[in-house]
Design goal:
mainly beta; single chain; 4-stranded antiparallel β-sheet; 3-stranded mixed β-sheet; globular
Length: 106
């Protein structure tokens, strides 16, 4: 094993504002934090996937909100959520630059 040395660091992004979509999932039949859910965002530029996980490494924690950055001129087509208990929800007509809350519909 390799020992963990050094002090923890907090990184902050000070770039100018850009276009984005943030998604917070609320499980009802699945676990409340939707850990294990897969979110697929389809845009005019392609498809991106994110898995809801609370950790990504030693002594770390990820925020429960998923963030998708969007290029200038890129439009959102659909957002699909595959919940841990198996239900699938597809949304369209999403508003950019705000957090979208998706509650599981079993």
């Amino acid at each position: 094993l390799v020992p963990v040395t050094g002090t923890p660091r907090l990184l902050r992004n000070d770039l100018p504002p850009a276009r984005w979509l943030r998604v917070r999932l609320e499980g009802t039949a699945s676990n409340r934090d939707a850990v294990g859910a897969e979110v697929t965002l389809t845009t005019s530029a392609g498809t991106r996937r994110r898995l809801v996980s609370r950790t990504h490494g030693y002594l770390s924690q990820s925020e429960p909100v998923l963030t998708f950055g969007l290029a200038a001129g890129e439009s959102v087509t659909t957002l699909k959520v595959q919940w841990p208990m198996g239900a699938v929800q597809t949304l369209s007509g999403l508003t950019l630059n705000e957090v979208t809350v998706v509650r599981e519909v079993p």
